[in-house]
Design goal:
Layout: E1 5-9, E2 30-31, E3 34-35, H1 36-46, E4 51-56, H2 61-69, E5 76-81, H3 88-95, E6 103-107, E7 110-111, H4 114-125, E8 132-138, E9 148-153, E10 156-162, E11 173-181, H5 202-213, E12 216-220, E13 225-226, H6 230-240, E14 245-247, E15 251-252, E16 257-258, E17 262-264, E18 269-270, E19 275-276, E20 280-282, E21 287-288, E22 293-299, E23 304-305, E24 310-315
Parallel strand pairs: 1-4, 1-6, 4-5, 8-12, 14-17, 15-18, 16-19, 17-20, 18-21, 19-22, 20-22, 21-23, 22-24
Antiparallel strand pairs: 2-3, 6-11, 7-13, 8-11, 9-10, 9-11
Helix pairs in contact: 3-5
């Protein structure tokens, strides 16, 4: 076990997911049978974290309903509401009164390998003098103006700049939204002003921590996947499908063929003479009609694949 609590920021609406986020938030987007927010919590729980706060928008009752319905014996989940989407510092401030010690903070759309989660927790546990541990990844020049970019002296982070121009960027090393913090960071949240885009940026609080307290280091990740677009949802599901062969539905017509890896939930109807797979995830409530072909695809709840239709390399 670890003394870390877990905080997941899940109030974003996922506007760049387009129609996919019309009826559910980004945090509830499915990754092979589980919402992405639960995937992140599973990895934290595997590192010994068992007490979670999830910060959501007031209208997102689906998260609360989900964790009431899916009771987990290995962790406790409490929902915190962010009244307005005013940035990560504001979101964290909503959970701050409930945080009792050191904590791990993640955005709900940021997936890293479990081995990296363990490296982060082990580094934090072995470095009791740290006030913050940031996870880092090198990025291409076109990504620099959209991320928090750090300057470093060895492992120490000396500066963080949110969305700099290429000319002002101190490096090509970006901070990703997975952190470990001491409670000291919470002292600075109220001082964070609104940015030009009207949001209170967590990076400003981190910069205050660096200047006033020091002891902020970075750890390079081996990999990272982030959910921003429908294509990201497809690719992340393809990644998690590796080695999976699970067909739960029994509503299958004659002469239909299933090619792993695939995951088909119960409550899916598959007609006759269909080919489903490889690399397919189908949510409950979908219908695949006679003679259809589905491969390298994700079918979300309520999707209908018409008779003879071919669905490939997309989310429906």
């Amino acid at each position: 076990m670890t003394d870390l609590q877990g905080v997941i920021l899940a109030a974003g609406g996922g506007s760049r997911l387009g129609q996919l986020s019309r009826n559910r938030s980004k945090a509830m987007m499915p990754i092979v049978g589980k919402p992405i927010v639960e995937r992140i919590m599973d990895d934290m729980a595997a590192c010994g974290i068992d007490d979670f706060f999830v910060v959501v928008s007031p209208g997102d009752t689906a998260i609360e309903d989900h964790f009431h319905a899916v009771r987990r014996s290995n962790f406790n989940v409490r929902i915190v509401y962010q009244p307005e989407r005013l940035g990560m510092a504001d979101a964290l401030s909503q959970a701050a009164p409930l945080i009792s010690g050191n904590f791990m903070l993640s955005a709900c759309d940021n997936l890293v390998p479990l081995s990296d989660f363990r490296r982060v927790v082990n580094k934090w546990k072995s470095s009791p003098s740290l006030q913050a541990l940031l996870t880092l990844i090198p990025v291409s020049a076109d990504k620099v103006p959209s991320m928090g970019i750090v300057a470093m002296d060895g492992a120490a982070i000396t500066r963080i700049v949110e969305k700099p121009s290429l000319e002002d960027a101190p490096s090509n090393i970006a901070s990703t939204p997975l952190y470990c913090f001491s409670p000291k960071i919470l002292d600075y949240l109220s001082e964070v002003p609104a940015s030009k885009r009207g949001e209170r940026e967590l990076q400003d609080a981190i910069q205050m921590l660096i200047y006033r307290d020091g002891s902020v280091e970075g750890l390079m990740l081996t990999n990272r996947m982030t959910l921003t677009s429908p294509n990201d949802l497809l690719n992340i599901n393809m990644h998690y499908l590796k080695g999976v062969d699970n067909v739960q539905t029994d509503k299958v017509g004659p002469n239909s063929n299933f090619v792993p890896p695939l995951y088909i939930e119960s409550g899916v109807t598959v007609g006759a003479n269909c080919t489903v797979g490889p690399n397919v995830y189908v949510e409950s409530g979908c219908e695949i009609r006679d003679g259809a072909v589905v491969r390298d695809a994700v079918l979300l709840k309520g999707a209908v694949v018409e008779a003879g239709e071919k669905v490939e390399l997309r989310v429906v």
